Amino acid sequence: MDRRTALATTAVAATALTVAGCSSTSNQPASAAPDTTPAKHDSNPAKKQDVLANTGDVPVGGGVITGDTVITQPTAGSFEAFSSTCTHLGCKVNAVTDGLIKCPCHGSTFHLDGTVASGPAPRALDSKAIRVDGDQIVSA
């Protein structure tokens, strides 16, 4: 077999494998009609948003860490949220105590408004958008 024939044979085989790989493997018969059932819409917007915490779980003058979010309540009824990733070397902050958000890796601390209280963190924690919906704090 010469080079041209070998290349042509390889191209045909590759095309056949590609076509076979793209074929439908659906368990649904080809004659089945598409589902036209209308989607149900939930009228509660809080359920559509990611619920991060309940307002009662966040102490005034303190905060909580939930997933990758730090939620604080510097003053009664005023909630703020930040990324839990420290701006020094990317460690996760692990505590909110004594009015400070604390990083265990190199000792950086942040005020409840996310600004640096003590380094080596070079800048404030990244803000996150939240809103209060009834007694829940949700991502906005």
Question: Explain this structure to me?
Answer:
The protein has 140 residues and is α+β, with helices and mostly antiparallel strands. It has a domain at 48-139: Rieske [2Fe-2S] iron-sulphur domain (Rieske Iron-sulfur Protein, 3-layer Sandwich). 17% of the residues lie in helices and 31% in strands. It contains two helices and eleven strands. Strands 2-3-4-9 form a four-stranded antiparallel beta sheet, with no helix packed on it. A four-stranded antiparallel beta sheet has the order 5-6-7-8, with no helix packed on it. A three-stranded antiparallel beta sheet has the order 1-11-10, with no helix packed on it. A hairpin with a 6-residue loop joins β6 and β7. It is elongated. 18% of the residues are buried. Keywords: 2Fe-2S, Disulfide bond, Iron, Iron-sulfur, Metal-binding, Signal. Residues 38-50 have a biased composition (Basic and acidic residues).
